[in-house]
Amino acid sequence: MDGLPDRVLVHGVTGSGKSTAALAIGARTGHPVTLVDELTWLPGWVPVDGEVQRELIGEVVAGERWLLDSAYGDWLDVVLPHAELVVGLDYPRWLSLGRLVRRTVSAAITKEPRCNGNVGPVSVDLPPSMLRTPRLTLEDPALEQGDTRGGQPRTIRATRRAGRRWTRPR
Fold first, then answer.
1. Nearest Cα to 147, choosing from 52, 2, 7?
2. Exposed/middle/buried for 96, CB within 10 Å: 0-12, 13-18, 19+?
3. Which of 17, 93, 145, 149 is packed most tightly, with the most Cβ within 10 A?
4. Predicted structure pTM score
5. Distance CA 58, CA 53 (A)
6. Are residues 89 and 18 in contact, defined by beta-carbon separation less than 8 angstroms?
7. Rounded to whole angstroms, how far apart are CA atoms 130 and 140?
8. How many other C-beta atoms lie within 10 A of the C-beta of residue 2?
9. What gap in Å lies between CA 144 and CA 77, rounded to an integer?
10. 97: left (phi over 0), alpha (psi -120 to 50) or beta
């Protein structure tokens, strides 16, 4: 991870380990990490208004150095023009689904606060995107939009092996 660009987006499906990877990469590189769910959920699992989300994320990506653990489709267009690197976590669907189930069950049992102090799972419903969306593809048209500096963010397809290497303690 030497020479990691200053503005990095970790991208992947629900349960792929975006937050874990972002925190590990940030710890190793010194990048300030923004966990998107902290900005998009209010207490009681109330979603932050979409326009407010766009503003909050816009403030983050206007900075010189950042690492985001996700970019929701409603404001992906706010992030990509500023990103220099997109790390796509391209793991098998069964792995991401298993992580999601484990996280949901654990949240229901431990009641450990997350996402602005929320406790328990946001829902017991499986996100429809988990079932119908194909695994991450870096040929996504949104990733081809480029950035305001006239270039495109570089993309890296991170396989499970690379993900383990990035997230393991030094």
1. 7
2. buried
3. 17
4. 0.71
5. 8
6. yes
7. 17
8. 4
9. 11
10. alpha
Tell me the two tokens of residue 126: 């499986």
Reported as a pLDDT band with limits 50, 70 and 90, residue 131 is very low
- Tell me if 129 sits within 8 A of 14, measured CB to CB: yes
pLDDT surpasses 60 at 167: no
Residue 147 has pLDDT above 50, yes or no: no
Q: What is the pLDDT of residue 9?
A: 94
Q: What amino acid occupies position 64?
A: E
Distance CA 33, CA 35 (A): 6
Amino acid code (one letter) for 145: Q
Domains detected in the chain: 7-163 (3.40.50)
Yes or no: say if 41 and 52 are a contact pair by the CB < 8 Å rule: no
The Cα–Cα gap between 71 and 78 comes to 9
Secondary structure string (H, E, C) spanning the chain: CCCCCCEEEEECCCCCCHHHHHHHHHHHHCCCEECHHHHHEECCCEECCHHHHHHHHHHHHCCCCEEECCCCHHHHHHHCCCCCEEEEECCCHHHHHHHHHHHHHHHHHHCCCECCCECCCCCCCCCHHHHHCCCCCCCCHHHHCCCCCCCCCEEEEECHHHHHHHHCCC
